[in-house]
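Reproducibility note. Readers wishing to regenerate the assembly model reported in the main text can use the exact inputs given here. Chain order matters: entities are listed in the order in which they were concatenated for prediction.
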Amino acid sequence: MGMRSEARELKLSEGGGDQIEKRILDIVSASGDAGVLQRNIWQLLNLDSRKGSKIVKRLERMGFISREVVVHRGRKMYVLKPTPRLLRAPRLPQLLEEIPCFYCPLLLSCSNEQQRVLSCEKLNQWLVNGVDK
Amino acid sequence: MSERDQVLFILAKKIHGDIAGRIAERLSRVGEATDEQLSQALGIEIGIIRRLLNELYESRFVRYRRVRDVDQGWYLYYWRLTDDDPFRVVEERKKKVLENLKLKLEHEESGSYFVCPQCKTRYSFDDVADYMFRCPECGSDLEAADNSLIIDKLKMVIRRLEELKLE
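Running the prediction on these inputs yields the following structure tokens for the assembly.
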């Protein structure tokens, strides 16, 4: 398993501490050649810079992003850019992560049995809990 | 590992767990293996390997080739990663998810639901008649549940899924 598989895993993973890494990778990935100011990421994700720097340095070591120093009004700042490795990683839409069925090991067998779908506790919980729109 | 195998590996691991991921990784490396070879290579009990191979087969991640062992007379199964494009695997899953959600929507729209005001458990009309309109958990009188938010959510997710284009 090389670094590329880790990149994909990060992108496809969900929940917990991975979530911040995934969101940083999403932002950097979307920023393209221009890159994005590290400072802006802290604001967007409401991260403190010490915690954020740690994560960013790790992502840099893993080869997903590059950090370049720029000087803006006499102050040193970092611009984060996606590496080719990050841009190559395949991604699955976030929507699929949100629905409990997609990553359920029983999906292909349960959909033949209506009653199992209707009484699925995970599906019901998701419907009741996540009613936000 | 090729890009194709990588996607299969990640999906298999995420859906069926770490050991399933290791099986997919091993199959990608060696091409083909029997359950016993996998069990030995990964140091994992053969019963677990067999169960996971069956799960992976159900989910279309692996295929097998069956060969009769001339000496012993029984069949040997040689497992390999599927030859399908992994995005077809994803596409099929998406289709099944849509079917599930549409079934759920149909049911929510047609049937009435009840809820226990105390413990918030939901019951369908069929259940409620059996319980004489009382919560079987705590005995409270059940109330008609408003499922309009659930219906809205199902409709929204179904629409977004139908519009979703996979690479």
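We highlight two features of this model. The helical segments of chain B are 3-16, 18-30, 35-42, 46-58, 86-110, 125-130, 148-163. The first strand of chain B starts at residue 62 and ends at 68.
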